[in-house]
User: Fold this.
Amino acid sequence: MNNTRINQIIGIMLLVFFTASCESKLDLSPVDEFAPGNALQSKAGLEALLFAAYNEYSMGPTVRDEVLINEVTTDVGFVRIGAVEREMKPYIDFNWDASTAQLQNLFWSPRYRAIRNANTLLDNIADSQVDEEFKRQVVAEARYIRAFEYAYMYKYFGVVPLRTTTDLTVQPKELGLPSEEDFRNFVETELMEAAEDLVHPSEQTQISRATKGHAYAALTKFLMNTKQWAKVVDVTQDLMDLNYYELFPTYRATFFVENEPQNNLANREIIVTWSLTNEEGRNNNYQNGAFPPGFRRSDNIPEFEWTTSMANWATQFTMRDGFVDSFDPDDVRKKTIIENYYNAAGALVNLRTTTHNSRSIKYFDNNQVGNASGADTPYLRYADILLCRAEALNEISGPTQESVDLVNLVRNRAEVTPYALADVGAKETFRDLILDERGWEFFSEGKRREDLIRHGKFLEYAEQRGLTVSEKQVYFPYPLAEVDANPALQQREGY
Assistant:
């Protein structure tokens, strides 16, 4: 979606919507058609409310924490030095608790704000005078955003309160947890029904605005994380039958700013992305912490050279040695990880002289200004769909030619030797191969934690790193402030 337009609309919404229904109210006087009594009757007001939901659904500088938390808790990522190390220390050491900041500020509050905005639109649109085609479209988008957010929170908390209306006479402020079955049924139904009315991706003119592909992809990941394999096969087929998505020819170039969907419509691999800009507040700041001290350039990424107008933080976002060393030497995906670089003095610095010190430079932006990189962070790519389908097929019936071929589509682009069906072994062996492939394909994209959880290796790998863990840590605790504010939300046992 065009970020400038979003920001303009959000400005209007701060005047309109939040005056009427946000916990923190603004004492501003609405004018003209945007008065509270009229705002949700007009196309402009409804669209503004929808874009307010999109604004919470999308991510700016929080991309950094999204990636880090999902990798420092695993065999992939590490952080050392400075404020960010202190923030990530509970996750690195597996000693987070209900007061740990990101649980509230990243994984909970923005998600429920997006849900609240979507619910407000859905509660009010029936009484509006807008045309039926517009109504059908924005209802589908609001349902998609709401279900997406519930699926997103499920990865971190499991089942959460399922608020589907802003009407407190229907759902009181103190709202308990639904059953696992009710939660799953809601998310699945909402995404499938939203997909029916969302536009085909070829028809969407605003980047990041929901399409059928968004709904099918989000549902695929939810079904994967709830291990509903047959449904994964069905919905990935729905997505593939759109005949739109495909792998971008070159792995590294998939992430170049010039090849982002808003700049290169030929890039049909990116399904859901956080469209970021090189301006504060809408930016990607992961890369600032990945630059090593005095970084200027690296032979692995000749397209990029750091300039003094760019930030290079004291904190260090790094990669664990075991993960870096697990790549096939010929794997082109490893070229986005640097193990040496040239510093400001022109000297070649070997990062591997320090343990766990290689760097992912996947998201560089030659036009970065200070902290603000404009490199998008993809949330769901077509490569993910291919590997999800392969994993689901394997879980159903073991290795098949189709499942091996799906993995090989990803491996062929990486320029590594494809698998033969006879070589992948039994279901358990192929399952491990797929998990490895996902690690090599999706590092720095915030997927490793959920993958290890699904494969039953999240706690096992932490123990191998010498950590003391417990079963409760597969999910995070509900944020302390939410439990205090909502007595019906019971903290799960052990927290």
